[in-house]
Specification:
Shape: globular
Largest sheet: 9 strands, antiparallel
Structural class: mainly beta
CATH architecture of the largest domain: Beta Barrel
Number of strands: 26
Oligomer: single chain
CATH class of the largest domain: Mainly Beta
Distance between the termini: 42 Å
CATH topology of the largest domain: Porin
Strand order of the largest sheet: 4-3-2-1-9-8-7-6-5
Radius of gyration: 24 Å
Helix content: under 10%
Strand content: over 45%
Number of helices: 3
Order of helices and strands: HEEEEEEEEEHEEEEEEEEEHEEEEEEEE
Amino acid sequence: MTRFLKITLLFAMLAAVGPVFAQQDLSGPWQGKLAVDAKTSLTIQFTFLKKPDGSYSAVLDSPDNPAIKNVAASAVSYSAGALKVDVASLSGSYAGTLKDGKFEGKWTQPGGTLPLELSAYQKPVLSKAAMDTLAGAWHGPITAPGVSLTFVARFKRNDKGEFTGSLFVPEQGVELPMSDIQFADNKLDFKVAPVRGEMVADYVNGGFNGLWRQGGNPPAGLPVSLKKGDVAAVVFPLKLSAESFASLAGRWSGSLATPQATLNVALRFEVNATGQYVGYIELPGGPAKGLPIGEADLTAGKLSVKAAGVPGEYQGTLSGKTLTGQWIGQGPQGPVPTPLTLTRQ
């Protein structure tokens, strides 16, 4: 089932195709929801381009999954209201029939077949009143198993006059772009594609009360209440002696082998603008500056580093320019140690 879910997520993007009437121009994005199971769905978007000879090409993207981006379809056929899309790179295909301006069809892959309805996609349009209400920053706490964080939702008009949003987590130094921002009838909905997140909230008494889900989990959502106001990034000064810091200063990099993939990981220790010792953990897909290190200790050649805002710790032994140890993450059944050797650059 896990493999089926992963494949389905990759293939979901294939489905969003379809015109409003038979043989009508398909050009542009079409979108739908692929129901992976009773509690999980994936938004998919299929963008069509009409060629000079009248045939079509298509590109797949998923607002919910950044790993599915600009995936080209290998073949697209459309005749008399019947649509067929093949995506060889994903070993899947979509077949649908036009009915009442939508395509009713199915996505098929080696692991099975799932229903998928596709409609022409229109980007949400916010009213001036909605933009005026949202503009600025809103913050509040969120608590998940093993961690408590702060959410800061920031809304503004960019240099092009477009209304944009981002979600900032001060404890982690992470700020990610929002998409599909909707606010009408005192109901707010926005997505954060890089982490497959979505927040749905009601505007009540000058604040937002709602739920956060990431990848559809937890199904019941995590409660979040946001009030007007911004929050600055959190600084975590490291309580290291000058001698210990000198032994660690700089960047240490290595490879972390997980069951899913081998990741390039680095620890970086430096002095900030105010003269404080600070550190960061560089991870693929993480903030450009790195995830802040909340605690660090070097005693008798033994290093302990704890990440800020996430359950994770590195323990290693220092020998010259090499740290030999393990990264300890948190799994469903408890701590999960993984060997990690770091070399000073």
